[in-house]
Amino acid sequence: MVDVVVIGLGPVGATLANLLGQAGISVVVLEREPAVYPLPRAVHFDAECMRVFDAIGVASALAEHCRVSPGMKFVNADGKLLVDWQRPEGIGPQGWNSSYRFHQPDLERILRERLATHACVDVRLRSEVFALDEQADHVQVRYEDLSCGALREVQARYVIGADGARSLVRRMIGSEMVDLGLHERWLVFDALLKRDWNVLGEHSVQFCDPARPATYVRGVGNRRRWEIMLRPGEDAARFAQTENVWSMLKKWITPDDAELERAVVYTFHAVIAQRWRQGRLMLAGDAAHQTPPFLGQGMCAGIRDAGNLAWKLSAILQYGASDALLDTYQQERYPHVSEFISLAVELGRIIQAVDQEAAAQRDEMFANGPRHLQSLSPRLGPSALLLHDAGGGLISHQPTLDDGRRMDAAAGSDFLLLTREGAFSEAQCEGARAAFPQPLRWIEDGSEPTREWLAALDADAVLVRPDRYIAGVARGGDALLGLTSSVGAALGATEVSVAA
Description:
Elements: E1 2-7, H1 11-22, E2 27-30, E3 44-46, H2 47-56, H3 59-63, E4 67-68, E5 71-76, E6 81-86, E7 99-101, H4 104-115, E8 121-124, E9 127-134, E10 139-145, E11 150-161, H5 168-173, E12 177-193, E13 204-208, E14 214-218, E15 223-229, H6 236-239, H7 242-249, E16 258-273, E17 277-278, E18 281-283, E19 289-290, H8 298-319, H9 327-351, H10 356-365, E20 371-372, H11 407-411, E21 415-420, H12 426-434, E22 440-445, H13 448-457, E23 461-464, E24 470-474, H14 477-491
Parallel strand pairs: 1-2, 1-11, 2-8, 5-13, 6-20, 11-18, 21-22
Antiparallel strand pairs: 3-7, 4-7, 5-6, 9-10, 10-11, 12-15, 12-16, 13-14, 14-15, 16-19, 17-18, 21-23, 23-24
Helix pairs in contact: 1-2, 1-4, 1-8, 12-14
Protein name: 3-(3-hydroxyphenyl)propionate hydroxylase
Organism: Pandoraea captiosa
Domain FAD-binding: 2-340
């Protein structure tokens, strides 16, 4: 029996398997396809995702294949700016850039190469799961080896369905999807430039034209993407024919400038699963939620799922935490991802206004100037693992410490107690650590970034979880002990383990 079976080896499944494998947890990954899908799909991730990739150990390799994005502009049919979403191009408070463009096959290749370094992770390609039989202490996973037609099985303590929008695991759980109100067909057209071309600049652009809403994405290297909305009744196959695509793009680009890599019609959905867990079965990524692409947060949401699940599974499997810890997964992630989907739907209504009167009313809303959009950074939903204070549930900053290390490197895969220099005695901190049932690193730091961050939180100490979210903050010795005791009790562990 293995600890975890992950179904699906896309970016979410590969990230989760890497996080678990790095912790020494035995994992079998079952993937239907024989190799990485070679064409582009997701094209954006953010600083929080890069922190997860850094925790896996692939951030440096991945960064070589990325481009920092300056943001996105929304313009109407007359070229008037409606929404301006500027992304800072410098290193942000999380220690990484706020927005990256990438080529998904590059990411998947790098994640799989990293997986191959974990002896406890077994990747089985050409493996199609067809049955899940949940028992009292394990799940029997049955699958077909498509390379030879043999029927095989594996037992696991937990099964994670990172198996996409048509998830088998979601069907086995019996979880319906909540409709958040957006379903539209769009043509996604990827092109490779053949010569210098910079007609539309470095920003991505949303063309909010009622005659034909469209999106332009400046990808990495010579990659460029357009997304073009279909009208009701338009034939998708005919619409995606090469000559039709070029005719719609001729005011910007022609076949002399670029070659077509692919043209495919997708239906953009805004849905979220009602239930993400049943016993030993859980969902992650598109199996749990799907969002329109207008915020570039589809894959990002799945990477956050992986980060949230990985440390909780590790707490159960390695440190004896209560199985009930997994109930906090949906409690925390559902409200968080819902905020992103809701904003994507709101922006979709701006972009997809195809009625002339509705478009005119929309434009009137921005008559006094564009809306300046800020990147979302919502709190996790309430759970016993989060204190209701100034920081609980927010993604943490990542200061560079006095000793030159970045905070995430100093924390590793453990909880971190970061305290203001001289705020607590050693006895107070050791008492707080002793009350904690898992490895808890304590760092006293006087660097300017740490001092500024703690001042903003009005705190002497911040407790950061392995997924880099703030569990809570404390001011004074009694509050410090209360913080670690409260979160420690929620972990429900049977043993006490303190990191050196």
